[in-house]
Amino acid sequence: MGNITKEQIEITKVNTSKIESIDFNNLAFGQVFSDHMLTCDYIDGKWQMPKIEPFASISLMPSAKIFHYGQSIFEGMKAYKDSNDDVFLFRPMENVKRLNISAKRLAIPEIPEDYFMEGLKALLDLEKDWIPTKEGSSLYLRPFVFSTGEGFHASPSNAYKFILACAPSGPYFSGKVKVLIEETYSRSANGGVGYAKAGGNYAGQFYPTQLAKDKGYQQVIWTDDTSHEYIEEAGAMNVFVRINDTLLTSPISERILDGVTRKSILDIAKAEGINTEVRKVKVSELVEAAKNGSLKEIFGAGTAAVISPISGFGFRGEDYEIPEIDNAYATKLKNRIVKIQTNKTDDPFGWRVKV
Ligand code: COI
Predict the structure, then answer these.
(1) SS3 265
(2) 118-144, pLDDT tens digit by residue?
(3) Which DSSP letter does residue 181 get?
(4) Would the pTM of this model clear 0.90, i.e. be above it?
(5) N or C: less crowded end of the chain, CB within 10 Å?
(6) From the CA of 188, how far away is ligand 1's center (Å)?
């Protein structure tokens, strides 16, 4: 692409920064937001020049289509700062490309890649001081697109807004997570939008997850929608299972998100000499492995939590615990990916991008 450069982006700054009011040592996940955001409007049949403006409320008519038909997609990314004050992103083009894969599925016009990337660079130049450096923290970046055009007709909008907002954040989960294997509700179905990062995919998870919480679990493991025999994702994350010394994860499909952390973990595991298998994993296999002691680990993988270890699972009224082990793959893989992300180790994969 390369049609615009970050210098061309018009910036309107806040009068007074709120950064002094933020406790960077006690950050929750995604609860406080930086001073500025990147915005870009799709009107008159094209994406207009991106701009940077103060992070503030936006005004929409009640007839805006986003409220009625949920045409909305998002991404999750993180920015890191090292001890030299250099700023890094992790495989950002993967997010840009996936946003446009989601856009296509939701009948949203694709955003020019250079608008996204040059806009993000300009925003990070401005918000550099908002990048936390404490271990486990980062500047979580939330690019999202939604329909702003008006009308109750159930058809795509003629106007959209892209926003990229920044939230200095601490860890997504604290501690291990107990999950329920879900056999009634489905996250996605063949031919649906499961592979897209559509807002509605997450909204649809809240009710089944609440039911699981009421039973004492923190998250659910989603199974395939037709047979419910195979595990597919864990909450809002991809899922990995270690049986003996083999690391397994489901192949991506039209129902499963092509997670950036997922594919990075697979590459790191291979480089570390861990035996990996990308194949469908049966719930019955998990139960059997839990019973005979060969189930060593289950963990979720996603941008927000990076790797989230699972302490046990519930299935058909039985609870299966996964005993703590030394040298867990979850710890080893998380350490390596976070060190690559934060410029604390070399990056033979070429994933880290200096801003
Ligand atoms: C991510 O891991 O970034 C996700 O997409 C989870 C998000 C819902 C917080």
Answers:
(1) helix
(2) 999 999 999 999 999 999 999 999 999
(3) E
(4) yes
(5) N
(6) 16
Question: Is 304's C-beta closer than 6 angstroms to any atom of ligand 1?
Answer: yes
Q: CA 220 → CA 66, 74, 171, 241, 314, distances in Å?
A: 28, 22, 19, 15, 9
Q: Is 95 in the pocket of ligand 1 (CB under 6 A)?
A: no
Tell me the C-alpha to C-alpha distance, in Å, between residue 147 and each of 41, 158, 349.
10, 8, 37
In this structure, the residue with its CA closest to atom 5 of ligand 1 is 76
- 309, β-bridge pairs: 299
Q: Is any ligand 1 atom within 6 A of the Cβ of residue 236? A: yes
CA of residue 33 to ligand 1 center, whole Å:
16
User: Residues 83, 338: contact at Cβ < 8 Å?
Assistant: no
Atom of ligand 1 nearest to the CA of 261: 2
Which atom of ligand 1 is the closest one to the Cα of 197? Answer: 5
The CATH number of 6-169, from 2.60.40.10, 2.60.40.2550, 3.30.450.150, 3.30.470.10, is 3.30.470.10
Give the CATH number of domain 177-341: 3.20.10.10
CA distance 78 to 67: 28
Q: Is the CB of 173 under 6 A from ligand 1?
A: no
Which residues contact residue 221 at a Cβ distance below 8 angstroms, ignoring those fewer than 6 apart?
179, 180, 181, 182, 231, 232, 233, 234, 239, 313
> What DSSP string describes 48-74?
PPPEEEES------TTBTHHHH--EEE
Ligand 1 centre distance from Cα of residue 338 (Å): 16
Whether 76 lines ligand 1, by a CB cut-off of 6 Å, is yes
pLDDT of 1 reads 46
Structure confidence by residue, pLDDT tens digits, 194-219:
999 999 999 999 999 999 999 999 99
Residue pLDDT, tens place only, 225-274: 999 999 999 999 999 999 999 999 999 999 999 999 999 999 999 999 99
- What are the structural domain ranges in the chain? 6-169, 177-341
List, for residues 285-339, the tens digit of each pLDDT value. Answer: 999 999 999 999 999 999 999 999 999 999 999 999 999 999 999 999 999 999 9
For ligand 1, say whether the CB of 302 is within 6 Å of any of its atoms. yes
